[in-house]
Write a structure and sequence with these properties.
The protein is of the alpha/beta class. The chain has 14 helices and 17 strands.
Length: 355
């Protein structure tokens, strides 16, 4: 196990960059960062993490369709040559806004891709599993160029992003799962819709949510809007996070209901939708997906560790890049060392948890 911060293929975290080399953003910069049109309509894709993996495994667990699941895995080259850790297994779980012709339009509507959800799932040999988020605006340096971490894949490729995350955590990423933009819509529709409840009436042009206070049966498009809406919510991102948890609960409840589990064709349809919405690394197999699902369940349970990385400045301005999140390298090294060792107490961690 490595306890020191690593640099992988020219990629490193910016956490101790001399402040004289950058100019500090004003309060106006920070306001623009929160309300920039590019941020409007972003999906909180962490709601897909448990859902897609668990649903993809339904056919495997119920019918022993190991080869079927394996044959439906879309694999890409993600992993770096960093030395392996032996004391834990880690998964990098990503949500990309790359348009696939379903929810959110096509690539011609919004070209390129940005990695807007970055989660590190760690399962130590002993101790609590953890699920830690990395802000998409985190400042990193790739091949000598400063940029936000959500732009790394588009500018430098998949392995560069994995290297950037390894630079933040100080530990090897063993597996990667990337969630495609339309995944939530496909899964909810494959289930035949889910029931969602919200006690406010909303007509939000940014997310497309048109909602009357109460409980309603929602199709995939509505569930997507329900989970992404924040500008019409007085609680902003906190309110959106609460609704995302409702979507997770509704999907898992429906997917594990007797109505679905007793219907082999429905299980296969849902599993196909889930598998068609993810891309995995070159070494992933059905068994590593199963391990990922079990680690996720453990991390989000009462004995798990959840939260975010630590940062020293959430509105750090860099010329040519914009307002970024300046991470706290020292605290993050200590955090991930303890998570990999399995010595961290269960609970919530990170700057938000302590503020």
């Amino acid at each position: 196990m490595r306890s020191t911060r690593q640099t992988v293929k020219g990629t490193q975290q910016v956490g101790s960059t001399p402040r004289a080399s950058f100019s500090r953003g004003t309060s106006r910069n920070r306001l623009e960062r929160r309300t920039s049109p590019q941020r409007k309509g972003r999906i909180g894709r962490r709601i897909l993490v448990a859902v897609l993996v668990i649903l993809a495994l339904l056919a495997l667990l119920l019918f022993g369709a190991w080869n079927w699941v394996s044959g439906h895995l879309e694999k890409e080259s993600w992993l770096t040559s960093a030395s392996e850790d032996t004391s834990a297994t880690s998964w990098l779980i990503l949500g990309s806004d790359e348009r696939d012709g379903t929810a959110g339009g096509s690539a011609s509507d919004t070209p390129g891709s940005r990695t807007d959800t970055i989660l590190v799932l760690t399962r130590p040999k002993n101790g609590s599993s953890s699920l830690i988020s990395i802000p998409r605006d985190s400042l990193v340096t790739v091949s000598g160029v400063s940029m936000k971490i959500n732009a790394v894949v588009e500018t430098n490729g998949r392995k560069a992003l994995v290297g950037a995350v390894e630079g933040i955590t100080g530990h090897k990423i063993d597996h990667v799962a990337e969630i495609k933009f339309g995944g939530l819509t496909k899964v909810v529709d494959a289930l035949g819709g889910v029931t969602l409840c919200y006690d406010k009436t909303v007509n939000d042009s940014y997310s497309g949510l048109n909602w009357k206070a109460g409980c309603h049966h929602a199709d995939g498009t509505t569930a997507l809007a329900f989970s992404r809406m924040r500008y019409a919510d007085s609680e902003g991102d906190f309110g959106r996070a609460a609704r995302q948890r409702k979507v997770i609960a509704a999907i898992v409840s429906k997917a594990t209901s007797a109505t679905v589990l007793s219907n082999p064709s429905k299980v296969t349809s849902v599993a196909s939708a889930a598998l068609g919405s993810i891309t995995v690394d070159e070494n992933t197999s059905p068994s590593t997906l199963l391990g990922m699902a079990l680690a996720f369940r453990s991390a989000t349970g009462s004995d798990g560790v959840t939260g975010s990385v630590y940062w020293s400045d959430p509105g750090y301005y860099v010329a040519g890049v914009g307002s970024c999140v300046l991470l706290d390298a020292t605290k993050n090294t200590t955090l991930f060392d303890s998570l990999v060792d399995g010595t961290h107490d269960a609970g919530t961690v990170g700057t938000l948890a302590e503020s």
